[in-house]
Design goal:
The protein is mainly alpha-helical. Helix content is 65%, strand content 0%. α19 packs antiparallel against α20 and α24 packs antiparallel against α25. The termini are far apart. About 2% of the residues have low confidence.
Length: 635
């Protein structure tokens, strides 16, 4: 076959092609709704929904994700601004996610081009193409919450380039710019710190001399000191920045199978096998799921052959790094970059929030793409410095790469359709999560929610039966799943099967004795059966455990009223009314207390205010039904 070279003029189009390709494959997501974790950081986050006026709180409090000790003010600030400017439109959030992702892909091209400055730009272009079209990024881009990963990569790579320029030119200005970029990257997501150690490596790869210079040793030491300092500062900020929200555990055994593991000897083998799973997903990205909860990833042991296959592969790759690093091979660089950036989520050094997640590959995939594309160059016997397509072998490799890029692009476009909303996400992916307890429970909640919108009782019953089946499957997988037991109990209670509902709620209460939800459900269940003696202590326990549980105060007030505990009703409503001034049910209970204690004028006045806002409030209407309410003095 004739030899073929690429036209030098086209090099200037590489960044534009990468940008447009990134936009093209995700343009359909702009029409999507909020989904999955978007609620945590946007729609259900009181600080984000307050918009621009909440920016001081966003930067001074750990409120990025409710109930978690997360401090990511940069992406949250952008979400808050967009929420106010575009009036809560999810389409604006998706648009800017695609925009920032496209910029990050261009930055990946610039980073590779900068690092391997003496290699033909076509190499950096192909690396950027592989990174851009890979379906593993769907979760990050199609989920607006993934902005934290995107910004961490964009700002982190920008910081590397600027710091390397500062070291090479001995200039302060790019050094300050690089430091600012890294601080902003870490304030987007703390795993950006793993990009920092690449600075001396990039300096060495760009140098003409293979022998490390004195400047490199000094810069490496400085980078090491700065890494430690930044980590300490981040930990200090996370520990001292105030939080107005109760802090829960960042993860549970439902997210990460290693937490509270009874068999610690399985942690390392399973973590190693997960690396193999990522490798398979890189080559064949199917199925892609958004939740690798218990028991999606089976636990591995030292006796499993797969564990040792992964170990042998890792040893082989480590040997390859040792062998090729002195020649400044892109393979060695890519593998080192992957190892460093993946370390934060490897579960080998400390536990990640999840056993496995597609988003964990966002930063490391830059390194994988660098290594893989260079490997393809070697396989095709193409010189990276002066690429020429000559011979059947070269054409075959290029053909396979072209087919792979086309297939990845198509899979990305098809897969991101799952993210249109919560319903499409769980319905399209549940078939791949049969052994996933959390996914089954989420599926059950979705089915139960959909049942209310169905036209006929038969369809509603069928959908509820499917929901019950999903919840039952969840507790089959993980018998200690408290939330699933509560969901099952509520479904039994709706059908009037109170004995089974009680057993389910009691099981949930025993599983988590300090959780208010089970106490609230038990109290509500007993109140529905007119048993105020049992209902009252459970509801009192619920509000004691969670003073912000508004519904628990309402049900407790009804229990006090039914049991004729008027004094308790008075003291409780006086407190609760101050905490929840917009709750008409609490105001109606307060009006009832005032009426029962013969404080008629304030009782009727408050009851009228309730009816004005809630015309169907039966408790307020009953107060106003008294003949005394019709007397002129009460008007």
């Amino acid at each position: 076959m004739p030899a073929m070279t690429h036209e030098p003029v086209s090099r200037r189009l590489y960044p534009l092609i990468v940008f447009l390709l990134a936009c093209l494959q995700y343009v359909n997501t702009v029409s999507y709704d909020y989904a999955w974790d978007d609620k945590l950081v946007i729609t259900a986050n009181d600080y984000t929904t307050r918009g621009i006026k909440a920016l001081p709180d966003i930067f001074t409090k750990r409120v990025s994700i409710p109930y978690k000790s997360e401090y990511r003010p940069v992406p949250q600030a952008l979400h808050a601004i967009e929420y106010q400017v575009f009036r809560g439109s999810p389409h604006a959030g998706h648009f800017f996610n695609v925009f920032w992702y496209a910029l990050s892909c261009v930055m990946a091209f610039a980073f590779v081009r900068f690092t391997f400055c003496r290699i033909d730009p076509l190499y950096a272009f192909l690396v950027a193409l592989l990174f851009t079209v890979h379906p593993l990024h769907v979760e990050v881009v199609a989920n607006i919450k993934g902005r934290d990963e995107i910004l961490a990569l964009f700002l982190g790579l920008s910081g590397i380039i600027l710091l390397v320029k500062a070291i090479e030119r001995l200039r302060w200005l790019p050094g300050i710019g690089g430091a600012v970029c890294f601080v902003l990257a870490c304030l987007s997501k703390s795993n950006a710190i793993t990009l920092f150690p690449l600075v001396p490596l990039v300096v060495w790869y760009r140098a003409r001399d293979s022998k490390p210079s004195r400047r490199l040793f000094v810069s490496s030491a400085a980078v090491a000191v700065c890494c430690v300092a930044v980590v300490l500062v981040i930990r200090h900020v996370q520990n001292t920045i105030s939080s107005d929200l109760p802090v829960h555990l960042n993860s549970t055994v439902l997210n990460n199978v290693f937490l509270w593991s009874a068999h610690t000897d399985t942690i390392v083998p399973t973590a190693l096998v997960v690396i193999g799973r990522y490798a398979l997903l890189f080559v064949y990205p199917h199925p892609l799921i958004h939740l690798y909860g218990y028991d999606q990833i089976p636990v591995s042991h030292w006796s499993d052959p797969v564990t040792w296959l992964v170990i042998l592969a890792l040893v082989g790759l480590a040997s390859l790094v040792v062998k090729t690093l002195p020649q400044k091979s892109p393979v060695a660089f890519g593998l080192i970059m992957f190892a460093i950036t993946y370390s934060a989520y490897s579960n080998l050094f400390f536990f990640a929030p999840d056993t496995m997640a597609d988003r964990y590959m966002f930063l490391p995939l830059v390194g994988i793409a660098i290594a893989v594309v260079y490997g393809l160059y070697r396989l095709a016997s193409i010189d990276v410095n002066a690429p020429v397509l000559a011979g059947a072998r070269a054409w075959s490799v290029v053909g396979v790469l072209a087919l792979a890029l086309g297939a990845y692009f198509a899979v990305t476009v098809v897969t991101n359709r799952d993210w249109q909303n919560d319903a499409t996400l769980i319905h399209n992916r549940i078939r791949y999560m049969e052994n996933n307890a959390a996914a089954q429970a989420i599926y059950g909640h979705q089915l139960n929610k959909e049942s209310a919108d169905l036209a006929t009782p038969q369809l509603r019953l069928q959908r509820k039966a499917a929901a019950m089946k999903a919840f039952t499957r969840a507790i089959e997988i993980y018998p200690d799943f408290q939330a699933a037991w509560i969901a099952i109990g509520r479904m039994f209670a709706e059908r009037g099967i109170y004995d089974k509902a009680e057993l389910s709620f009691l099981r949930a209460q025993r599983l988590e004795p300090l959780s208010p939800d089970a106490y609230f459900c038990l109290g509500t269940l007993y109140l529905a059966q007119q048993d105020t003696d049992l209902a009252t202590p459970y509801l009192e326990k619920a509000v004691l455990l969670d003073p912000s549980m508004e519904d628990a105060y309402v049900m407790l007030g009804r229990a006090y009223l039914r049991a004729n505990h008027i004094d308790n009703l008075g003291s409780m409503t006086a407190t609760a009314q101050r905490w929840f001034p917009q709750n008409t049910n609490l105001e109606a209970l307060r009006a009832t207390y005032l009426f029962r204690t013969q404080q008629y004028d304030p009782a009727f006045q408050l009851a009228r205010q309730v009816v004005a806002r809630d015309p169907q409030n039966t408790l307020a209407i009953s107060v106003l039904s008294s003949p005394l309410a019709q007397s002129p003095s009460s008007r």
